[in-house]
Amino acid sequence: MQALNDIDVVIVGAGLAGLTAAHELKKSDVSFIILEARSRAGGRIFSTMTEDNLPIDLGAQWIGSGQKRMMRLASEYKLQLTPTFQIGNTLFNLRRKQKKTKGSVPSLSPVAMLEVKKLKKKLNKVSKQIPANAPWDSKVAKQLDKMTLEEFILKHSHSNVASAYIRLIIEELLCAKLYEISALDFCWCIKSAGTLEQLLSAESYWFKDGAEKVVDQLIEPLKTMIYFEHPVHHIIYEEKGAVVFAGKQSWKTSKVIITVPPNLVTKIDFDPPLPSDRIQLCERSGFPSVIKLIYVYDRPFWRELGLNGTAYSDEPPVNLTIDSSPVDKYKGILTVLIGSNSAREIARLEHGLRHDLVKGALVRLFGKEAAFPLEVFEKDWTADIWTRGGYGTHFSTGVISQFGPSLIQPVGPIHWAGTETASEWRMYMEGAVQSGERVSNEVVRSLKK
Ligand SMILES: Cc1cc2nc3c(=O)[nH]c(=O)nc-3n(C[C@H](O)[C@H](O)[C@H](O)COP(=O)(O)OP(=O)(O)OC[C@H]3O[C@@H](n4cnc5c(N)ncnc54)[C@H](O)[C@@H]3O)c2cc1C
């Protein structure tokens, strides 16, 4: 193998996982570079500014108090967190009926409420049996992985209203239809967060100055080690090392850390090819579709109507809205999330029609004033070639139980990270950080051998 440079580790991807791995390697005096396809770091974290310089997040935004690594980063970098606005009623647009409620559960009939409780309890109980770092080893893995999440919910619920409510909140969490996802995949998500209740509290705080501030802080000491606009396209490897190709350059290295999500691993040409389990896993993985929009208004007018800005809806196209208005400037900012089929359907429409549909949905939820935003921002993550969807990869039936171990199993000098590989808070920023910590330990240990 001939290449230009000798380096201990090449990290592929400057998202949160890659940047965390780099920080950890730096502590161990291991030499490394980061190759990043985009012209910016952060991957699925992407902040921008409104006309009057209010930071907004078009990618990852919220964290929960149980996410200790993200909380630690916020405190270490002195980044202010804003609690998600919760004064007033949450809206539920469920089965064409609109309900206002205090808290996160709509007022349902006593029978439906009991069913919701039973379903949540069942999901927690089953998830408890899954090892968060190896769900495929669980006794219930095969059985759960045969079933879509939709089948699981229908099997354990005897109330259409209860299953409609559970479907609504989980489909928002995953950006996918329940029939697309394996029950094992979702139970693994629950286990990695602790409980379903913890998973549902992941949107408790947001970074006042944008989540990208975390990335800005992380890249500060790494600037000379990151090569932007260097998509890795080819990796030649043997047991003792690899040559990594990005553009016309190549780097000879002892170890490679790949942090790109499994769907994008398929875009890299490996020589020799990856083991067939790894290839199968990557080829059977994909991101759900998601579009994130930000509507900026002259004030958070919904608060005057006694609403807190959070609205869940099973009527297309809007799935979820959350108030992201600044506490210190009186502007109204409504974050709008559109996932799954709705995201695909409206992405096919031309811009004007798409926005009319979204505005129409907001008017139905919040009244006429919603039709008059000052500014609108939109990011269709499915169209972004360096991500291809969001929030994270979810597997359909039969994938995790058969090919799951290959997700984290090193292949010669190649080690895997990224939120998709996390055992804590997989699919979240917290999971990306945890995977970066895990992989750097793994690599440092194996370099010492
Ligand atoms: C719309 C949206 C909203 C979200 N909201 C939240 C939220 O509120 N809270 C939360 O915790 N999480 C949220 N998430 C999920 C969160 O963004 C991710 O879990 C996390 O950022 C993943 O980090 P990562 O480093 O694992 O992967 P990524 O951020 O995807 O990083 C991978 C990096 O690899 C690069 N790359 C890809 N291919 C190559 C290649 N061939 N060569 C070199 N580089 C390559 C990419 O450009 C990218 O920078 C959201 C995601 C989306 C899309």
Task: Explain what the structure shows.
The strands form four sheets. Strands 1, 2, 10, 11, 12, 13, 14 and 20 form an eight-stranded mixed beta sheet that branches. This protein has a seven-stranded mixed beta sheet with strand order 8-7-16-17-18-15-19. It has a three-stranded antiparallel beta sheet with strand order 5-9-6. The protein contains 16 helices and 20 strands. The longest helix is centred in the last third of the chain and has 20 residues, at 429-448. The model has no long low-confidence stretch (mean pLDDT 96). α3 (110-128) crosses α7. It folds into three domains: 5-43 and 212-286 and 394-448, 3-Layer(bba) Sandwich (FAD/NAD(P)-binding domain); 47-68 and 80-86 and 203-209 and 288-383, Polyamine Oxidase, Chain A, domain 2; 108-199, Guanine Nucleotide Dissociation Inhibitor, domain 1. Helices cover 35% and strands 22% of the residues. It has 449 residues and is of the alpha/beta class. The protein binds flavin-adenine dinucleotide. Flavin-adenine dinucleotide (FAD) binds at residues 12-18, 35-38, 43-45, 59-63, 231-232, 259-261, 264, 267-268, 290, 292, 381, 386-387, 390-392, 418-419, 427-429, 431-432. Residues 12-18, 35-38, 43-45, 59-63, 231-232, 259-261, 264, 267-268, 290, 292, 381, 386-387, 390-392, 418-419, 427-429, 431-432 line the site of flavin-adenine dinucleotide (FAD).
